[in-house]
Amino acid sequence: MTFVKHFERNTSGRDFAVGDIHGCFKLLRTDLDNMGFDPSRDRLFSVGDLVDRGPDSELALEWIDEPWFHAVRGNHEDMAIRYPSGNMDAANYAANGGAWNVGNPRHLQLAFSCAFDALPVAIEVETEGGLIGILHADCPFPTWRDFTVSLDDANMSNKMRKAVFEAALWSRERIQDEDVSGVPDLRALIVGHTPLKSPAVLGNVHYIDTGAVFRGGYFTFINLATLETVPAMQKKLEWEAA
Ligand SMILES: [Mn+2]
């Protein structure tokens, strides 16, 4: 299997990416309706964390099956993948919003684990302005090419692969360091994972998780053609290189 999924340009409709969903699929549906999202020609890309904390996590399987919906795996998918094989502590999982799945019958836990294990770690989308990368947390290499080649490198040691996955799904290094170096061989990298009051841009890395599942949070969408957000950024929070 491949851990990088490539998409050609959408020449008939619009492409959006949305921040962490965390089981808020009904709210997401309402927002898409308000945007006039047309599933016959528009596409929605998800930065992962489809499940946990919110009310409708079990709908994730239906959404994954939609031909217009394309998600990378987040660290919450990682937990659901690991849980049935005993590689995720139940109390820790429940404390992170996974109680709904801890309580699921085993066949459902396996169904979620399998479905999430089939999700790519990285998505890349061709746009008129250049290639856009999508992943959950961070690109742990100086270039997108180094990262995607390493994801699918059959000769990589298991230990090294684990470290690359771990960083892509869990790391907050770039945002904590306020690192504006960006990913130079991409037009833009779109990530979630770190809930912010408003979307933010670090170099060419766009942070679009505005914590829809949390009180006061909401969904941020980014139009991949224009890199404009919906809702529009009220105050463009952008780090400047020092
Ligand atoms: Mn996350």
From TrEMBL:
Gene3D superfamilies: 3.60.21.10. InterPro entries: Ap4A_hydrolase, Calcineurin-like_PHP, Metallo-depent_PP-like, Ser/Thr-sp_prot-phosphatase. Transmembrane segments: none annotated. GO terms for biological process: RNA decapping. This is Serine/threonine protein phosphatase. It comes from the Bacteria. GO terms for molecular function: bis(5'-nucleosyl)-tetraphosphatase (symmetrical) activity; phosphatase activity. It comes from Paraburkholderia antibiotica. Residues 72-77 form the Serine/threonine specific protein phosphatases domain. GO terms for cellular component: cytoplasm.
